Amino acid sequence: MWFCLPLQVIERDRMRESLSLFSWALLFSCCWVTQAEIFTSISHMTDLVYTEKELVQSLKEYIKAEESKLAAVKSWANKLDALTKVSTSDPEGYLAHPVNAYKLVKRLNTEWSELESLVLQNPSDGFVSNMSMHRQYFPGEEDKTGAAKALMRLQDTYQLDSEAFSKGKLPGMHSNAMLTVDDCFDMGKTAYNDGDYYHAVLWMQQSLKQLDAGEEAVISKADILDYLSYSVYQMGDLPRAVELTRRLVAIDPSHERAGGNLRYFERLLFKQLNELKQTQQSASEEPIQLGTYIRPKDHLPERDTYEALCRGEGVQMVRHEKKCIRLLCRYQDGKRNPRLLLKPIKEEDEWDSPRIVRFLDMLSDEEIEKIKELAKPRLARATVRDPKTGVLTTANYRVSKSAWLEGEEDPIIDRVNQRIEDITGLTVDTAELLQVANYGVGGQYEPHFDFSRRPFDSNFKGDGNRLATFLNYMSDVEAGGATVFPDFGAAIKPKKGTSVFWYNLFRSGEGDYRTRHAACPVLVGSKWVSNKWFHERGQEFRRPCGLTEVD
C-alpha cells in the first residue's frame, strides 16, 4: 500500500532537507573561499554570487520550515488546550462517549508521538523529559487497535452506521465528538490489517464520503480507493470492485497495483458472467452502508439473539406479565435475619424461571465510592480460564478490567459481604472474593456460564462449583451495558445501587444451562459492577439438595 505521511512528518522531513541544504551550502562556500585565496578570478567570484543566492534561498527555506514548525506546534497547543479543558471538567462523563475514548487513545498513541518528533528538531529538553516520563503510561499499538475494534463492536451490536459514529450521533445523545476523514481511514485500515474486510469497507467508504464532501485530510483519495476497492473485492462484489478500481486508475494512472488489479477483477467478472450466462451490468450506484453486505458469521451461535436483546429487541415478558399480573415485589428480611428485621431489603422479580430477583438500595453511594476507590489501583484486564489448559488468559469476548477485594481490607467490604449473606441466606465463607469490574469503551462479556461445565474445573474442586451469582450495579449507564439472557429473552438494565441474584445450579448440583448470560457492550457511559460468586460447599443445609435432577 502507498501511504500519505501526516503533515507533521512532512514538515519534519522538509526541515531536515532544508537544514541539510543549508549546511552543505555553508561547507561549499567555505571550500570556495579557500580556493579563491589560491585562484583569485572574477569567474570564481561570479560562482560565489550564485552560491550566496543559493544560501539565501536555503536560509529562507530554513526560516519558513521553522515558522511552519512553530505554527504547527501552536496549532496543536491550542487544539489540545481546548480539548483538555473539556475532558478535565468531567473526565468520566467525557470518556463515557466511545468516540471520545477512541480519539484519546489514538491521540496518545499516534499524534503525540508525531508532535514529539516535530519538537525534537530543536533542543527541547523539558518537553522530551516530560514525554519520556509519561510515555510508559501511553497506550500502545495494541490499545489503539483495541479501541478501534471496540467502536466496530458497538457498530455491530447496536446497528449503527459509520456516519452515526463519525458525526457523534449515538442513540439518545448528540456530541461534538466527531471522526475526521483520517480517523475513519485509520479505522478501516485497522480492520483491513486484521483481515476484517466487512468493517474495512464500511469505514473506508465513510472516509471517502467525507473527503468527497470537501473535508480536508492528510490521506489521499487514491489511498482510500486502493483499500476500499480490494476490500469490496474480498466481500465478493466484483462489479463495484471494478468500478472503484477504475476511479483509482483515473486519479492515479501510474499507481503500481491499480492497473493489474483492474485487469484481474475484469477477467474474474467476465468469467463469472459467462458461467452464469448473464450480460455485464454496471455496479450498483447505491452507496455502501450498513446492510449492503452480510456480516460474516463468527464463533458465537446466538450472536443475533444476543445483540438483539442488547438493543432492546425481542425482550420477552415473564409469566406474570403475560397474565397481566404485575411483577411481584416485596420486603425481604432474610427469613427474619436480625440485621434485616428493622430495615428489610426491597426485592423485585426480574424473571420467574429460572428465578432472577433484583434488590433495591443494596449499596449506598458511600459504599460504592469506597469500593471503586479500593479497586481502581488494582484494575487489570479481566481474564477467563482457558478450557483446554486451565490457565487464566485474556479473551476478546471479555473486555473489561477487574480487581478482587478481601473483606479484611476495609470495614465497608466486610459489611457488604455480610449484607449479601444475610439477604441470600448463603454463607460467604466459601464464596470468592468480591470482584469489581469496570467496562469502558465497548466493554462487554459475551454469552457465558458462571458455573464450570463438565469436565469439572479442577480449580473449583475444593469448594465445589459456582452455585449462585450476586451482581451489584455500581453505576447507571446512559446506553447499552444490559445483562441479557439469550435462552429466554431477558434483559436487565443496570441501575446504580441495585443488585440481581440467581442460582447457576439446580438443587441436584447440575448446571442450569438457561442461565447463560452476557454483559452487553457499553455504548455510552462507564459501567461499574461488583459480584460475589457463591460455591456449593457450606450451603448443604442452607440450600438442601432436591429429589430430581432439575429441582
Give a verbal description of the structure:
Belongs to the P4HA family. GO terms for molecular function: iron ion binding; L-ascorbic acid binding; procollagen-proline 4-dioxygenase activity. This is procollagen-proline 4-dioxygenase. Its EC number is 1.14.11.2. The protein contains 17 helices and 20 strands. The chain is α+β, with helices and mostly antiparallel strands and 551 residues long. The protein has 3 domains: 42-136; 141-276, Tetratricopeptide repeat domain (Serine Threonine Protein Phosphatase 5, Tetratricopeptide repeat, Alpha Horseshoe), CATH 1.25.40.10; 325-535, Jelly Rolls, CATH 2.60.120.620. The strands form 5 sheets. Strands 3-4-5-17-13-20-11-10-6 form a 9-stranded antiparallel sheet, with helices on one face. It has a 5-stranded antiparallel sheet with strand order 9-12-18-15-16, covered by helices on one side. It has a two-stranded antiparallel ribbon with strand order 1-2. The longest helix has 48 residues, at 42-89. The two termini are 62 Å apart.
